Amino acid sequence: MNPRHAFFACLQRSPPALFEAALWISAEHDPQVKPEVLLEQFKELEQRVSAGLPMLPVSELAQPLLRRLNDMGYQQDESTPLRPQVALLNKVLERRRGQPLALGLIALELARRLEIPMVGVNFPGHFLLRVPGADHLLDPCGGRRLYPNDCRELLQRQYGPNMPLNAEHLLTSEPIQMLQRLSRNLRQLHLANDDNIDALIDAERVLELGNACVSDYLARASLYQRLDCPNAERFDLEHALLLSDDPIQRIRLTDRLGHLPPNSIVH
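-> structure tokens emitted (267 positions)
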């Protein structure tokens, strides 16, 4: 079974094996990555985290778990420019530095194993966590509590003062949504580092996970353009055109399609 097939097999389990699936994403980019070995090694981290938690009901251990991870060196990677290692889970486990989503996936797996209630929240620009029923969110990068005003400030700091906070920003994230977000992050990181082939691997996974948007097809079309694959580029531009509701974007897509060479079929 190749890494892509193993990845989707993880999603077929009940419940989905979120953390293992993320490790198989790393294995797609590096054949030396062995998810089964990393899962075995993860038990040591689980034991170390567990040993440092206070004697409290499990419903009160989410924030202490995140603080414990932070004390052990698991922190947001602030280096620039960012590289794919901030999102590849094997590298984050090794370096103890990563993006909020990668740190959140580690925290969610620890919480699952330790039976601590915790879910992911697909907050724009900065993945967050929550204890079901709590009146606040948690930052996976250290465990800071975020109330609605904090969330509003975080959102506007990233997207500007005109970006309103709405209920959709605070919804619980399903495993497929988290893995699609991870794939989009990696697609962008590989692209920013001029690694078109690895970016294409991530772009394809985004689409295979379903519910892709116009920008997902455009991202892969741009990669095919870089790789001089006009037929594949045309396929994605046509799909983007079908999905687009923006009249100006539709005009631009039609113009771009018109500049592509005729679709060639080899018999």
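The chain is about 55% helix and 5% strand.
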